[in-house]
Amino acid sequence: MLSWRRVVNRLRAVLRSALVTFVVLTATLWLMPGVASADIVDTLGLVLLVAGVGAVLRPLLLVGVVALGGWGAMLLGVVAQITVIVIALELDPAERISGLPSLVLAAILAVVFAAVIDWMLDSGSDDTFVKEAKRLMRGVRRRQLRQAGGPFLTLRRPRQGTEPGLLMLQFDGLSEPVLRWAVRAGNLPTLGHWLRSGSHTMVGWHTGMPSTTPASQAGILHGATRQIPGFRWFEKEAGKLMVSNRPRDAAAIEPRLSDGRGLLRDGGVSIGNAFSGDAAVSLLTVSHAALPGRSARGWAAFMASPYGFTRALVLGVGEILTELHQARLQRRRNLQPRVSRSGAFLALRPASMLLRDVNISLIAEQMARGAPAIYCDLVDYDEVAHHAGPARPESMRQLEGLDRMLGVLERLSPEAARRYHIVVLSDHGQSQGATFRQRYGETLDQMVGRLSAPDHADAPTTPAEESISEPDPPIAPLLVVSSGNLSLLYLTRFTHRLCRTEIDRAYPKLVPGLVAHPGIGLVVVRDDDGPVAFGTHGTHRLRDGIVEGADPLLPYGPNARADLLRHQEAAHVGDLVLISSVDPVTEEVAAFEELVGSHGGLGGWQTEAVLVHPSRWPIAAPELDGPDAVHRQLIEWLDMLGLRTQPAEADEWEASASAPRLSRAHDG
Is the pTM of this model over 0.70? Predict the structure, then answer.
C-alpha cells in the first residue's frame, strides 16, 4: 500500500478530484444569480470543505443506501451527491449562497458539471469506473476475510484467487456475421485481441425458432426451449395472453422450465436475465421481479458513488440528445428502411446504458465474492439495433461499448476471488427490413381482420421488446400475437389446437388469403398428414418432406424444416404460424412489429448467434443447433472446470429417469 507508485497514483487522484471540484464550484457560483463574490481563496476553502463533508457523510450515506436497497438505494444515491454539496455550501464561511432552494439548485448544477467534466477528463475511457469497482471488490473481499476470522484491519490487498470460475456474458441480439465483421474492421479491440492472439475462438450457432431472448434463455439456462413458442403467446386452457418480459408472467413460466438442474444451480448468479437458471442469487432477473436488496453491495455502491447512478443520469441526457440527432440524420438522408425512434425508445436507450453499468458493478461484486458461475445479459446493442438497424453506426457504437466492458472486466479480474474464464455469446441475431405495415399499408392485424370479417382481431401493437408494463389486452375471437416476423394466430373460442379443416370451417377465407399475400412467406397449419408449410406457389409437408410446386422453405435456409418441426412441438403454439416473406437477395424480412431490426422467426441473420470461448476448450458437437445444445455445452465446460457438484453424466441419468420431462432436450 505504501509503494511509491501507489502513493503517486493516489496523490494524482486527489489532485484531479480537487481540480474538478474547484472548476465545478467556480462555474456553479458564476452561474448562480445574486452571488457577490467568487474569490479564488474562498473557493479553495470551499473545495476543502466539500472534501471534508464528503469524507464524513459519504460513508454514512453508503450505509443508508445499503440498508435501504432497491428503489430506496436509487433515490438516496442521487440525494447523497446533492446533500454533500448543500451542506458544504451551507457551512461556507463566505455565505455566498443562502436559502434552501438556491442551495439545492447550486448543488444540482455542481453535480451535473462534475459528471460532464469527469467524462471529458476520462476521454471516453472507463478508468474512473474501474477504480470505483476495484474499491468495491477489495471492500467485499476484506469483509469476507474478517467474517472468516481474519484481521479486522489490514492494508494488504487480497490476491486473486486460484480456483477457476466461469463468467458468461450474453450480448443480446448480436449475430455472428455482424460480430465477425466488427472484429475484422478493428472496431472491437478487446475481443479482437482475444481472437487474434489465439486465447479465444469464435463459432456460430443456430438458434432455431422462435429466435427470441426468452426462448433462447429458456434453453441456455434451463434446457427447456420448447416451453416457449414466441415472445408472446396465448394459453387456451387458461384463456390468458402471456408476455414473457412481464414479471408476473415470467414468474409463472419459470417453474415450467426449472427441474432444479439449471445452468447456474451450483451457487451460480443470474444478472439481468429473463429466467434464473436455478441460480443461488438472482439480480435484476425478470422472473424474480425485484431490485437488488441489502445484500447486493454492488447495487448500493453504484447508487452511492458520484461516478455511478448520478453520472449515468447526467450522461443519459446526452444519450437522448445523441439519439435525437441520429434519428434526424436518418430522416434527412432518407435512409431506408427506418422506423420512428421517438416515444418510449428515447427513455429506453439511456436506460440500457444505465443497466449496463449497473450490471458490470453487480458482476464485479460477485467476482469478489467468488461466485463459481455468473451469467449476465447485456441488452444495449439489441435495443438500439431494433430501431436503427443491426449494422448501422448507432448499433456499432453500442457494440463498441460492450467491448469496452469486456476490457473493464479484464482489468477487474486481478481483484477477483477466482480466476475467471470469460465466455461471450448471443441469444439470437437480428434481420433488417421495412416493416409489414410500411410495405403494404396495413398491419397484419388489420389484414387478418379483413380476411376473418365480421370478426376483428385485437392483438398487442407495442413492439415485443418494449411490453414489460403492458396490461392484458381484450381477448378477440381471432387473436394475432406477433414477435418480429413471426406471428401466432389463435382461434380463442376453441380450447384445443385446431387443424386446417376446423379453421376453414370457422374462417373460410383466412388461410387462402394469408397464403396469397406477398408479405406472408409461410403459413404453417396442421393437416391430416401433420404440419404443412404453405407458400404462394407450393407446399412442404414438414413430417415427411414432400414438396408440391415450388418449395416455400428454400428462402429460409437449410435448417428451416427442422426449425418449423421443432416449433410445432412447442407448448401453446398457435393454430396458425405465420412467417413473413424474405428477400432472396438482401435477406430482408417484413416484421409484423414496427421494428427495422427484428427477430423471432426465420430469414436473414436472426437465427445466426455466436459463441466466443477459450480456444483450448473442446466443443462436443460439430454444430450447435438450438439453445438446448448450447446449454449442454456450457454444462460440460462447468463440469470440466469442476464447478458442478454433480457431474454431467449424473444429470443426464437423472433426466432420463424423471417424468414428466419439461423438454425433449433433457432426453439428450
Answer: yes
